[in-house]
Amino acid sequence: MRILKGNLYAIIAKVIFVSLAMVALGYFMMAAFGTGDTNIAIFLAICILLLAFTYFTNLSVPLKFFAPGIMFLGAFVIVPVVFTLSMAGFKYQTGNMLSKEDALSTIIDQGNTTDPEGTSFDVVIGHVGEKQGNVGVLIPIPREDESQVGSALVFDSRLGYYGGDKSNIAVLVSDVYEEGSYPFFISTATELVTLTEDDVVLNDDYVAVKAPGFTQFSEAESKVVSDQLAGIRFKYVDPYFLKADPPIRGNSMASVNQAEVNYNYFISTKTEYYEVDENDVTVDDLGQAIAAKNFTKYTSDQIAKYADKIGNVRLKYEDPYYIGIENLPTGSNPFGWAIVKIQNITYDKKTDKVTDILTGATYSDDGRGNYRNPDNKEDYLDPGWRQGVWFENFTSLVTEPRIREPLISVFIWTIVFAVSTVITQFALGLLVAIAMDKKLRGRGVYRSLMILPYAMPSIMSILIWGGMLDRNGAINSLLNLDISWLQDPWMAKVSVLLVNLWLGFPYFYLICAGSLQAIPKELAESASIDGANARQIFRLITLPLLLRMLTPLLIASFAFNFNNFNIVYLLTGGGPKPELDSLAGATDILISYTYKLAFDTTIQNYGLASAISVVIFVIVASISMYGIRKSKVLDDFA
Amino acid sequence: MFSISKKGAGAVVAFAVVLGGIALAPAQAAPKVLTIWADETRGPNLIQLFGALEDQDDGDFVDGYVIDVKPQANFEALKAALDNATSASGPDIVLGPNDWVATGAKNGKLAAFTLPATIKKDFTANQLGDLSYKGKLYGVPLDVNNVAMVRNEGVPSSAVATFGAMVNYFQANKEAQGLTAGLCVLGGGTSWGGLGVWSALGLQPYRMSNGKVDTKLSKATATVAASGDPVSGSFVNNLKALVLEPSGNRWVSNGFWAPWDGAPGTTMANCEADFKAGKVPFAILGNWQKGMLSTAIEGTLQPVPGITAGTYGNAFGSVSGALLTSFANGKGNLAAAKSLLNYFGSRAGQRDYQKIENRPHANAKAAKFGSVFQKGMARAAGQASIPQIGSILSGTGGNAWWDLPGDFWWNVTGDPGVDLTTKTKSLSAILKANVVAGSKF
Lengths: 638, 441
Fold this sequence. Notes:
The complex is a heterodimer of chains A (638) and B (441).
Chain A: E1 2-6, H1 8-34, H2 38-55, H3 61-87, E2 90-91, H4 100-110, E3 112-114, E4 120-128, E5 135-142, E6 154-162, E7 165-174, E8 184-188, E9 192-195, E10 201-202, E11 208-210, E12 214-216, H5 219-229, E13 234-235, E14 240-244, E15 252-258, E16 263-268, E17 273-276, E18 281-283, E19 289-292, E20 295-297, H6 300-305, H7 307-312, E21 314-316, E22 321-327, E23 336-343, E24 345-348, E25 353-356, E26 362-365, E27 371-372, E28 387-388, H8 392-399, H9 401-437, H10 443-455, H11 458-468, H12 474-479, H13 489-518, H14 521-529, H15 534-562, H16 565-571, H17 590-599, H18 606-631
Helix pairs in contact in A: 1-2, 2-3, 3-18, 8-9, 8-18, 9-13, 9-15, 10-13, 11-16, 13-15, 14-15, 15-18, 17-18
Chain B: E1 2-5, H1 6-24, E2 33-38, H2 42-50, E3 66-71, H3 75-84, E4 93-97, H4 101-106, H5 117-120, H6 125-130, E5 132-133, E6 136-137, E7 139-145, E8 147-151, H7 163-177, E9 183-185, H8 189-193, H9 195-201, E10 208-209, E11 212-213, H10 235-243, E12 244-247, E13 250-253, H11 271-276, E14 282-286, H12 295-298, E15 315-316, E16 318-324, H13 327-330, H14 334-345, H15 347-357, H16 364-367, H17 372-384, E17 385-386, H18 390-393, H19 404-414, H20 420-439
Helix pairs in contact in B: 2-15, 14-15, 19-20
């Protein structure tokens, strides 16, 4: 069977274009799979198959024309509608956004806490045995009879040399946080020179950068001597000494270390926690553990490679506790940091219950999207999940007074607003079109001016009108009036209608002007010969024919204005509120009211918003269908 | 006529798909990257701090990692991006305000972590509490967000003791100096930046008691009630005495202050321009607006003075933090992200960052080395700040604090014959309801 026929170039072009489209869809499909959006990925896979069957087979010629439209209809109309419909049946709001599986996983992941003493260690992160992925930590624990200098004792310093001798490596230290005996000093391996603030030059950070006899290394020099730093103990108050890190952007951190600290060493892996003989531990010149028997410290690259494992591993400790690695080594600190934790939240799959072993509280599925403590209804676990609640979101529109009470007045105003807008815009547009249908001087200029409001971005127009309608705005100033255009509920409604008329009439002017041209002149001439006057011709011939042509557009305009969020939100924000505690303002239409209900509050309620959207959809669809049937405008297509 | 077999067509298509797929597939061997999202000011400043991605050496800040900062177009865009982030697209760390914490934790977008004691001790309990939810810490405090009031050049040389003194100064010099208003809010808007004014007059979203929200509210709707009520009993009188005046049967601003430019009774056309032109003696500005200040007035930063000497109008003093996201765990970056948070919290980290960002340091030790401006802002925050509690401020449906003061002013000055007491009672009832609902969040 030959499936590709025709001109060679046409076939090549077709194969290239269709293949490119398929590749693009395939790329998005893979990305969707990667991000876990399986439904989107499946939809894209169906689109790819549809493209292949449509354009590489002869199964259906009409489909070749409709396929792209069907795909876009599916993606941008059907999927959102189905999603909205389905979400209207869920408790889907702040705190209940995840699936139950993800919520439970998060609860378990986060369900740990530190031991009562808050035990933590500086640790060497590495692997035990030959297998690099076998994450473990080497924990040096100072012996009880020794004291360790806290890691908080770290000073800003500058690295250089002292006394003009480049081999006499020194640090210029600024003890600017803890005001001790030596706020500023120069330290070499053999000497400690104390300084006062008057001796040094400080930078913006209050860190000394110059001092007598001290010369800071250049960046290149610093790199050269960096390797030697590990072996230098800079002089400090006995029995302590300083060690300096290689400088980062000129600043070197000098930390206080104790000369003769002895440690007990432990190794912890996923399965074991055991003490290591001191003789089996390798330490560097500064006494820092860097390896142990059967334990190898990770390199920077290995840290990055196994970061996921390191961040999530639970290392053995005294039951029921475990060791978790919180921090990786950083540029200035070769140790990681680990803390002792306990998994206090546990889950029993059989009973679907969560228990906090520290408090003894048990949480069960409350059927409302949360694990809740039955003994204390206020006590529940976060996050919750999306829970199916059938028609609850719909019934709450009627049963909740907070929502129900303003709903009726908002609904009535929405109908009035949409109908009035369509009528006034159509009437003015038609009037202008008829006026411009006559020959008059400068008609082109007038036409251009008429289209301007339509050509300008509506957001800008609305905001400008908002300024002009302010009580101190241009309208009142020019007309010497004192009208609260936007503050008085009735005037605010009038303002919304007027501004919307300004924005929308050019559209109707354009389509009316075009439609008038399409009405045969002979009809008017015949009627005129039969004695009809101009008014009769317009009422009995022109207008009915125009309405016949424009009814679909009028219905579409009604549907658009029913949901015209922009004009209300930008001009009045739905206000003014008749009372401060009113939920809806005087100019709120259903869609802006929905927005306030769903999003203008602490709990963002997507489920409720979806339910109201469905109701709006049903109303608009019903009115539109009624209008279309009544006008029989689609009969011609039958 | 050219024709091709089914097998041939399939081969061509498959070849094209494979080629295209290879061309479009993302590179896999990328270095380990920690991703940070921030707003349009903090983002570029972080890039300046860490360096552009291509210029970074692995491990400068966390072993084996480079740091990719992605600034968003603005604060709202950042919030929207976080709301829509997925496990694949989301950041490891996001810089955001404290009132994102409760929602982020409830939605499972933020992850809790433990801060080392050596870093923790540099922050106040309130700062850490601001970034905690149900006892767990979700971020490290970075900077204090607050506003303070300044006296313009050539106006009172010493600190102003009371709100009334400011009004008197304005009234006395209005004609002679061509003042268009007494006080304008340059930073933070009517409800956030302007809280100091509302609070000085007796209105605020909640009151604090011993570091916690005072929930001992009176049951009556009357405005004079328990000490914890958001609207004080003297609010109406203060309004009439200090910022409003009758105009026919309406209330209008007396010219000293109004929530927005050009409100009835004021002649101020543009707050910022008028202040810079010396036509407004006092202004409230945010700690991100250092550029608006001359050094001459930098030292005059103070909270908005209260009705009586020694008292102040409260201002929001929230902290912004570097928040750990749950996406970090999904991407295997949990430990690395926590390590970077330690840097953010450290004295050196805060000092490096705030040198560029120029907001008051959250870290008390690092704050010691702030500029005059940073110290002034921090001092003002210390004197008068209250925490920003999103769950109360967002209110019940349609009654967010952010709209209420403006709506109140709008209602009070909009219609003739308005009864101030009635309107104030209504406002009080809403605010009490917000406190009750928000405290349960």
